[in-house]
Design a protein that fits this description.
The chain is α+β, with helices and mostly antiparallel strands. It is built from 10 helices and 12 strands. The longest helix is centred in the middle third of the chain and has 63 residues.
């Protein structure tokens, strides 16, 4: 729009220069012979069909002598002959100062400050002498009006173009900018955690941007595989450490263990024992057998001697853990609803239940509770352990069953790992559920139907 105004003004000056040069040459004889009437006819000729809204057409044309006197004008009512130019107004006074020098100058454009007029001064030269000046007076308001009409048309055209381009730009923005922003957000997540895949429907085109998203998804998949591999390596290293540890202490445990079991058998066979002592010895024997089975479970090469699970094995667990729960001020409840004998290994099941209840008692706050239910249903042994207390953070759940990983003060990180190994060896499964104030473990172990049932 600024360039349009500049071009319009340049057109006006060019037209004025052409018109002024023609009139100046024609008016020289009238000025030399002092022929006022002839001069009036000449300066009046361009205004016979004047359009007041045409800014290229001058409002007034006049001839001014070198002594700043109006010789003739196209509007003698407002600019009479023999009147000084300065007397026509303040802007004419500024004009007179601009054309006052006697030296010959080219066509001059004079724009007085705070004036509604624009002047074009064309020198009248004959034989190398300056005879006077032809002044063409133009209206700035007409120039501005024509410019505003042009600007309004350009503005309307611009609005039409914007009305067409904005929806197109919005579409391309949604198609390209939004997926790129989502991609940038996912890339920012890489230093902190594994990023997620980009949804295929986010950008389902096969251009350069689509190939970029496909490459990103392949990178994310490779990062996840790398994380799984690293996790497997760490787990394997921990397993190797546990294997070396258990292999070193297994024989040291089994030797005195065998001696204690032999002593118990001898005492039961040759001792004259009352009923309470016999129950106590039975409890000790089952506990020692559980220790033997647990050590055997840690040794991959060991062959475990299976013993079917009895109801008393489960009741022993409550007897063993009740003192620890009472010491912490935790209410321990164990419900056992199973047959007297179940075709499932007794030692691993007892160890799993002891580990879960021991962790639950340690996790429950003083004054809290631990509730355990053991049932058999649809060919499976179900053990549910619930306790009150602070929930396990989601970031800890992922590593909950790894060896040497403990989030409890004083924990060694082997209890849940041993539990997971025992459940896996029995072809069972273990699940964890965390609510706002309740932590729950559920273990399901299949019963061996080809064994002799109770």
């Amino acid at each position: 729009m600024y360039q349009a105004y500049t071009d319009l003004k340049s057109t006006l000056v060019t037209s004025a220069t052409s018109l002024g040069s023609t009139l100046a040459q024609t008016l020289i004889p009238s000025l030399l012979h002092d022929d006022v009437w002839r001069g009036y006819e000449i300066v009046r000729a361009p205004f016979r069909e004047r359009d007041p809204d045409n800014p290229v057409q001058p409002e007034v044309a006049m001839v001014v002598t070198t002594s700043q006197i109006i010789f003739v004008s196209s509007d003698p009512d407002h600019y009479p002959m023999l009147q000084e130019v300065r007397a026509a107004g303040r802007d004419f006074a500024q004009l007179a100062d601009a054309i006052a020098p006697s030296e010959i100058v080219p066509v001059m454009v004079v724009e007085p400050a705070d004036s509604e007029r624009l002047f074009v001064a064309v020198p009248m030269i004959d034989g190398g002498a300056r005879l006077g000046t032809l002044l063409l007076v133009y209206s700035r308001s007409a120039l501005y009006a024509m410019f505003l009409r042009s600007a309004l048309g350009a503005g309307l055209l611009g609005l039409v173009v914007l009305a067409i381009l904005l929806p197109i730009n919005w579409y391309w923005g949604q198609r390209m900018a939004t997926p790129l922003v989502r991609l940038a957000q996912r890339m920012d997540e890489i230093p902190d955690r594994l990023p997620e895949h980009l949804e295929p429907e986010l950008y389902n085109y096969h251009d350069e941007l689509g190939r970029l998203f496909e490459a990103y998804n392949r990178m994310v998949e490779a990062l996840h595989e790398k994380a799984l591999l690293e996790r497997g390596i760490v787990s394997a290293e921990r397993l190797a450490a546990v294997g070396r540890l258990t292999a070193g202490i297994a024989h040291e445990i089994n030797n005195p263990l065998a001696g204690m079991l032999t002593a118990l058998d001898t005492l039961k066979l040759h001792g004259d024992l009352d009923q309470r002592t016999q129950r106590t010895l039975g409890l000790l024997e089952r506990g020692l057998l559980q220790v033997r089975d647990t050590v055997a479970a840690l040794l991959v090469e060991a062959r475990q001697e299976k013993r079917d699970l009895g109801r008393q094995d489960l009741l022993d667990v409550k007897t063993l853990l009740q003192p620890a729960a009472a010491k912490r001020g935790v209410r321990l409840e164990v419900e056992v609803d199973v047959a007297s004998l179940l075709p499932v290994p007794a030692g691993p099941v007892r160890q799993v239940l002891i580990n879960l209840l021991n962790n639950a008692v340690a996790a429950a706050e003083p004054g809290g509770w631990v509730h355990c239910v053991v049932t058999s249903s649809d060919g499976n042994l179900l053990m549910e352990v619930r306790n009150s207390g602070e929930p396990i953070p989601p970031e800890h759940l992922e590593h909950l069953f790894e060896p040497f990983v403990s989030y409890r003060q004083g924990g060694h990180g082997l209890g849940l790992w041993v539990t997971y190994q025992l459940v896996s060896q029995m072809m069972g499964r273990i699940e964890v559920v965390c609510d706002e104030q309740i932590i729950g473990f559920t273990v399901s172990v299949p019963l061996e139907r080809d064994e002799v049932t109770a």
